[in-house]
Amino acid sequence: MLKIMMAQLNYLVGDLPGNVGKMIELVRRHGNEVDLIVFSELAATGYYPYDYITRAGFVDAQDEQLLLLQQATAGMRAGVVVGHISRNPFAGKPFFNSLSLIENGARSYTYHKHLLCDYDIFNEPRHFEPGNRPGLVTFRGQRIGFLICEDAWNAADIPLYQVDPVSHLERERLDLVVSINASPSNVRKQLKRHQVIGAAARRCGCPVVYVNQVGGYDDIVFDGASFVAERSGGIGYGLPSFEEALAVIEVGESGAIAPVAASVAAGQLTANPQPMDDIELIYRQSIVGIRDYVGKCGFTGAVVGSSGGVDSAVTLALAVEALGPENVFAITMPNELFSSAGSVRDSEALCANLGIPLYSDPITKEYELWLENYRAVYGKEPERLTRENRQARIRGGKVMAFSNDRPGVLALSTGNKSEVCEGYCTLYGDMCGGLNVLGDIYKTQVYEIGRLHNRLRPERCIPEEIFTKEPSAELSEGQKDSDSLLPYEILDPVLMLFIEHDLLEDEEREECLGKLAGTPTAALERAIRLVDRAQFKRNQAAPIIRVQRRSFGPGWQVPVAARYVDDRFIQEVVGRELPGKGR
Question: What is the CA radius of gyration of the chain?
Answer without folding.
Answer: 26
